[in-house]
Write a structure and sequence with these properties.
The protein has a 5-stranded mixed β-sheet with strand order 4-3-2-5-6, covered by helices on one side. It is an alpha/beta fold. Helix content is 35%, strand content 17%. Helix 2 (92-105) packs across helix 3.
Length: 147
């Protein structure tokens, strides 16, 4: 008696039946989908304008869309006045150095200020003055669309 598989009524073996489930292709598909979702979610986050790494409550305004580039600098200002660039809190001196380095790389670098609605106006002006002192002339204030 051979161990090749189950036998039919007439005594011949039935080698066409495969009883195991191979989950390797299924796992491969899930990993590919996971990578696709990770890449698209990071692209969507980058396109939303929240490049500073901090969520702030932007004021509403009827403004036109501005085009952003990878070389642009986004500065978020929280309600307590902290300045954040690329997810890291920076001081005024560090921010001045970041602006000067950006000016050295590209004079057309745009500075986008994402200030929380409750942020004091003077803090926003101070960031814009630092950018102008470094020689950056393209300044923008981020708002959310008025409904």
């Amino acid at each position: 008696m051979s161990m090749g598989g189950p036998r039919s009524d007439d005594g011949t073996s039935d080698d066409g039946i495969f009883a195991d489930i191979n989950i390797t292709p299924l796992t491969d598909i899930f990993l590919v989908l996971l990578i696709i979702f990770m890449v698209t979610s990071s692209v969507m986050a980058a396109d939303s304008g929240a490049r500073a790494g901090v969520k702030v409550n932007l004021p509403r305004g009827a403004t036109k869309e501005i085009s952003t580039n990878a070389r642009d600098i986004t500065v978020a200002i929280t309600t307590d006045g902290k300045m954040v660039v690329d997810g890291k809190e920076v001081s005024a001196d560090s921010l001045q150095k970041i602006f000067e380095d950006a000016k050295g790389r590209d004079a057309e670098t745009q500075v986008i200020v994402q200030a929380d609605e409750a942020t004091h106006h003077g803090r926003v002006v101070a960031v814009m003055e630092l950018a102008k002192a470094a020689g950056l002339r393209r300044l923008a204030i981020a708002t959310r669309r008025a409904r």
